Amino acid sequence: MTAIPVWDVLQRRTPDADWEVAGGIKAPDLEMAMLLARETHFRHKEAPAFAVRLRGTEEVHPALDLTGIGGVIDRAYRRSEGYAGVGAKLKKVHALMKERGLAIDRPRPPATRGRAAEVAHG
């Protein structure tokens, strides 16, 4: 049984910084190492550049395609900055729905959980 090679995953925090080790992965070849490094270490764009290096060697293989699998996918909802401006958008939509006569402008009904639900349902 052949051991699967270990690759060091390298990153640059800024475009002019030196490579630093971000972790390691096991992959049978360079292509798979790049794919795994991108998906396990950089899918949220944590660094502007990444590379892999076969552990125990000096040759660094920088990633040529930094867009990810199938192009850039907006996953901003996974980070707090993805929610910037949501309150303002909600107010704008509510005003638009009110103009169209589709807004509900009465208080919410009382909650049916807790003590009130126990009394009502015995």
What do you see in this structure?
The protein is an alpha+beta fold. It has three helices and four strands. A four-stranded antiparallel beta sheet has the order 2-1-3-4, covered by helices on one side. A hairpin with a 6-residue loop joins strand 3 (49-54) and strand 4. The longest helix is centred in the last third of the chain and has 14 residues, at 86-99. The mean pLDDT is 82.
Mean of all residue-level pLDDT scores: 82
What is the overall number of helices?
3
Radius of gyration equals 25 Å
> Percent of residues in helical segments?
25-40%
Task: Give a nutshell description of this structure.
With 122 residues, the chain is of the alpha+beta class.
What descriptive keywords fit this protein?
18% strand, four-stranded antiparallel β-sheet, single chain, alpha+beta, 122 residues
